[in-house]
Amino acid sequence: MTSPRESSPDVSIIVVNFKGGDALEACLVSLFHDQSKANREIWVVDNDSADDSPAVIERLVATQSGVDWMASPENVGYAAGVDLALPRCRGRYVAVLNMDTVIESGWLDPLVEYLDTHHKAAAASPLITVADGSAINAAGQWIHQTGLGFNRALGRPLDAVGDMPFSVAGIHGAAFMVRRHLLEQIGGMDSGGFLYHEDVNLSWLLRLMGYELACVPRARVRHDYFLSMHAEKLALLERNREAMLRAYLTPETRRKLWGWRSLTECMLWIYAGMRGPTFLRAKHRARKWVQAQTELIERRRQLAESLRARTDQEVLAAMTRRYPIGQLMALAGERGTPRRPLS
């Protein structure tokens, strides 16, 4: 561990790693060479990686000041990895990065400037591009009223969203910045789901608390991304989506959304059937998990109600009832082994 820094940083950056290898090294090197004016500290959390990641982290951290790392004794998932570092963060803002991202120099300053001047905004995402910077990976998220999350502007040219910040329904988990005091107020990110859907969950809760979310295009982060689905990912996405809806929506609202929820369920079961038995079993596993998590969901419901500043209808007004057909068709057409199975 490096010695504590004397001055308080503007931003605490958290990078959660699991078997990141070369991708993690590229991420950290880009952060070390960043020319942002904002003062920052960096925390790297390794989720019990069995590859050479710990050695890579140790070697890189030894060359830098203002960088610390911690090793989890087990893989606790993405949200819990963020939460491990949160008590040690001292910045006004917390920026979270996937291990397979590479920042473009100066990325912090537009995000800090935006949150400094827009006090109703709880969090903001940079413009996330694909790995070579040629197109958009995500300009925030579209969030469906049934809890599905989709990359906003996926595949579109960089100039499609302009240069000015704009409101989004959800931040994107690959790269975002959030006010530290708000993240602490909600007890950190919701770690109950282990992996996937954390960004939708956080976005929904922050909106329920009365805050806004934005994308700031002048801040750029590149992401080694490929639209893909595997059975375990579907199981995690589905269980976490349903648990979130049960925790954050009142029973009356869930009844009012019955038609849309049924349509989404029907589409997902058809999709699972198209992908085969492993996907059907994954969808069934997700349902059984939710049924067994009544205590966890109830604790989350009580937290949400204690923080509520908006009605469900006000929160849902920022969401969409449209399904992004292009992304759905791409996933429906996927065959064979996914590019990134969970391992």
Overview in brief:
With about 350 residues, the chain is an alpha/beta fold. It contains 13 helices and twelve strands. The N terminus is likely disordered.
Blueprint of the fold:
Layout lengths: L10 E7 L3 H12 L7 E7 L6 H9 L5 E5 L6 H8 L7 E6 L2 E3 L4 H10 L3 E10 L5 E3 L2 E3 L5 E3 L14 E2 L7 E5 H6 L12 H11 L3 E12 L7 H18 L2 H6 L1 H18 L1 H16 L1 H14 L4 H5 L8 H8 L11
Parallel strand pairs: 1-2, 1-4, 2-3, 6-12
Antiparallel strand pairs: 4-11, 5-12, 6-7, 6-11, 8-9, 10-12
Alpha carbon gyration radius? 19 Å
What is the overall shape? globular
In terms of structural class, how would the helical and strand content be classed?
alpha/beta
What is the N-to-C order of secondary-structure elements (H for helix, E for strand)?
EHEHEHEEHEEEEEEHHEHHHHHHH
Number of helical segments with 4 or more residues: 13
